[in-house]
Amino acid sequence: MSGNAVRLEAISEIVNQEPVESNVPFTESSTAEIFGENVFSLTVMQKRLPKDVYKSLKTTIEKGAKLDPTTANAVAAEMKSWALEHGATHYAHVFYPLTGLTAEKHDSFYTPDGKGGTLAEFEGGTLVQGEPDGSSFPNGGIRETFEARGYTIWDVTSPAYIMENPNGTTLCIPTAFVSWTGEALDKKTPVLRSMQALNIQAQRVLKFFGTAGAFVSSTAGAEQEYFLVDKNFFYARPDLLNAGRTLFGAAPPKGQEFDDHYFGAIPERVLACMFEAERECFKLGIPVKTRHNEVAPGQYEIAPVFEFSNVATDHQQLIMVTLKRVAEKYGMICLMHEKPFAGVNGSGKHLNFSMGSADAGNLFDPGDTPSENAQFLVFCAAMIRAVYHWAPLLRTVVASASNDHRLGANEAPPAILSVFLGDELTEVIEAIATGAPLKSRKSVMHVGADVLPEIPRDSGDRNRTSPMAFTGNRFEFRAVGSNQSIAGPLVAMNSIMADSLEFCASKLEAADTSTPEKLGKAVEALVKEIYTECKNVVFNGDGYSDEWHAEAAKRGLPNLKTTADALPVLKTKEVTELFEKYEVLSARETESRYEVYAEQYIMSINVESNLMLKMAKTIIFPAAIRYQSELATSLANLKEVGISADTDTLSYVTELIATMQSAIKVLAEAKENAPEDPEESCNYCRDTIIPAMNSLREVADKIEGEVADDLWPLPTYQEMLFVR
Ligand code: ADP
Ligand code: MG
Q: Whose CA is nearest to atom 17 of ligand 1?
């Protein structure tokens, strides 16, 4: 068998694949029909629940009031009948452990009735609280195994839904996952707490503008980027299978330089897969809206319409799960890793973020009246202040081994957190801060008297290089990684905005705001104070440029380049106190997060380096020496018949093999000397292991460029990215 048999077989499978069979017809009307059909939504509850039960539940959802057992029982009973009507046989408490994945524990509705039959049972208590074992989920020392109990508690703010499978359906109940002492072991609990904190501080500010009252919630819309590769290639690459990215692979002759994939026609099989994934999302009430090709070949994007942060977080996880599941039905694997292929763009998850309420509207929307604008300016200034003061925290919540490959790699924003406001808004804020007249008018602008000059909403030439960009009526946090839960970033945004709004509220409360004019003056003073302090964080230029790195250093903006640099921020007094003050995370909970994330970083580098060693030794080295021996044999044969041929290629290959062998040795030895302490170990990964991995890859990729194609065992970049 030749060395490239696996590759040839994979290609032949793909080339000879059956055309995609049409699934269910997909039309506008059917979309409307199926949207939310598998969700136990407020509308369904209103229809099915007794009036008083519905009212009591709604109060719980909207005001965070405690759920009483009678209500819980009544809801559970109705939820059960609804689920059984949808063919459910099981129910599952779904939760979001700190791994960033989705976890669920399934139980059957049916219990023996003691008379040889079964009974469908589901009580309020079972709905509200579950006890998965889950002792193996990372908890950063909060739970010792002897007290391994962790509870799942129904999150009434996120609706239950039905998950379909060809062989049955399951009622899924979104839950929070907490320890028996009430500490959050999951990603969801702090999201809910931070939303409460944000609301409290926002109300204090809104009362000055007569818009307080309705709950102020943050809103989120995450644009998910991902790659699709054929499963034949995926399973032929141990690195893709085990690490979700290629640890080796020479750049293809043709990469993404022609931009011919970006927004191009979507390949048929991929489009079919997207249709089905979207349909599945619709059934779950997830409002997915846009889809298109991304920059890199084989890369795509899906984005839903924004929702309240807590719901958006759950839906974001469901989108990831759904994409992965559906892709496999079409013979493809959905790669969510931030950098599956070196040398082509990686994947991010742009997190669009805003906040608003029924009474106040979208608080990052400039609005049409002087009063709306005054309110807008306060919230905008609060955001500038938040990013300025909490840049290291924002960097930490997007830190992971995989996202490190992407940030700052000239395709994603750098690790320096700055805010893009656009020229128009910058001019307005600067004019207020300095008292200078605006270009568009002769006189100075006054808050509370003037309507803002037109701020272009969502204008076309948006700055794509900024990690935090104002995009007309929201901010877009672009540093989030494609594989990450948006929970962490949202917790940070909610908390730092709460902190900034608290600052603003205190200033306004201390000022004379007895008349609209005086309020306007107070807002001007506030905007001026914030801008004067924080303007260094505002940057409208090219975030990818070297000049910006130099300029940012001059401005004193932190640049935490890697996860090892960023994670210790979670251990700082400022961050611990921030989360404690707003009751988002206790000191112990914050500390546990550091421990879990550091461990994850170390573990993923460990898995990758193990894999590299194994692949280098058992796949690449054998291919190289086969080729070397072929060259040597041919030279010897030529010599025998009296022909002298040059030995350059053989010498070069021999040299590469020797270099690879020493690179293997260096990495293997480095791994043996890893320190125990988490922080030291993270630094060791950054300073020693990762550079050793890079050296090994570099020489292995050179070998790939030399070895005869029919001896090369791993699917190549060319094949994985272009053969569909
Ligand atoms: P682009 O690729 O140009 O950034 P997309 O349409 O792909 O735009 O994504 C924009 C995202 O921003 C969508 O998810 C959209 O729902 C979201 N968005 C719009 N308004 C808000 C808002 N007020 N709060 C949060 N997200 C928002
Ligand atoms: Mg987009």
A: 221
Q: Quick one: 62 and 8 in the same domain?
A: no
Judge if the beta carbon of residue 223 lies within 6 A of ligand 1.
Answer: yes
Band of pLDDT at residue 133, cut at 50, 70 and 90? low
List residues bridging with 468 in a β-sheet.
Answer: 419, 477
The range of the structural domain enclosing residue 690 comes to 601-722
Q: Do both 661 and 533 map to the same domain? A: no
Q: What percent of the chain has pLDDT over 90?
A: 69
273 and 365 co-located in one domain: no
pLDDT band of 16, cuts 50, 70, 90 = confident
Task: Tell me which ligand sits closest to the C-alpha of residue 464.
Answer: 1
Structure confidence at residue 413 as a pLDDT band (50, 70, 90): confident
Residues 656 and 513 in one domain: no
pLDDT in tens, 24-46: 555 555 778 899 999 999 999 99
Mutational pocket test of ligand 1: of 352, 353, 486, the residue with most ligand atoms within 8 Å of the beta carbon: 352
Among positive and negative, which fits the CA dihedral 683, 684, 688, 690? Answer: negative
E runs forming strands in 140-184? 150-154, 160-165, 168-179
Structural domain count of the chain: 4
Question: Does 244 share its domain with 115?
Answer: no
- pLDDT (tens digit per residue) in 612-653: 999 999 999 999 999 999 999 999 999 999 998 889 999 999
Q: Is the CB of 218 under 6 A from ligand 1?
A: no
b/e burial code for range 324-353 (CB count within 10 A of at least 16 → b): bebbeebbbbbbbbbbbbbebbbbbbbbbb
> The pTM is what?
0.94
Claim to verify: residue 365 and residue 329 sit in the same structural domain:
no
Nearest alpha carbon, ligand 1 atom 6 = 290
Contact (Cβ atoms closer than 8 angstroms) between residue 623 and residue 125: no
671 with 714, same domain: the answer is yes
Pick the residue whose CA is nearest to atom 24 on ligand 1: 354
Q: How far is CA 89 from CA 162, 167, 396, 651, in A?
A: 11, 10, 42, 67
Clarify whether residues 21 and 73 are in a common domain.
no
Ligand 1 centroid distance, CA of 221 (Å)? 5
CATH code of 124's domain: 3.10.20.70
- Domain limit, last residue, from 520, 555, 590: 555
